Amino acid sequence: xxxxxxxxxxxxxxxxxxxxxxxxxxxxxxxxxxxxxxxxxxxxxxxxxxxxxxxxxxxxxxxxxxxxxxxxxxxxxxxxxxxxxxxxxxxxxxxxxxxxxxxxxxxxxxxxxxxxxxxxxxxxxxxxxxxxxx
Length: 134
Prior knowledge:
Shape: elongated
CATH architecture: Up-down Bundle
Number of strands: 0
Distance between the termini: 16 Å
CATH superfamily: Flagellar protein FliS
Helix content: over 70%
Number of helices: 6
């Protein structure tokens, strides 16, 4: 795991008290996606409550987690897919930064929806592919 991915896992661990010691890599990615979506939801609530500092903190955590997801990509396998995901993660980071500056709940919803789409596809990966590392 790269330093960025380790930072994201550490960020997620600090926000979620559940143990990740026994989770497989597929489950870790799901947890990171869930963690990012949770932070975005918390940021949305902070905007609605006009809690600027908390909003920035939650968006910063979501950005860190998404950066970690990008760091987990293996460009040596499925090159085009990982390149497209990398571009999408970069887009999410930029959109979250913009949402932070403008208190844009619609942008937060957009990124949450994108993550949900990726997560749904990730959950469809057959067990046989998970076991072979495909």
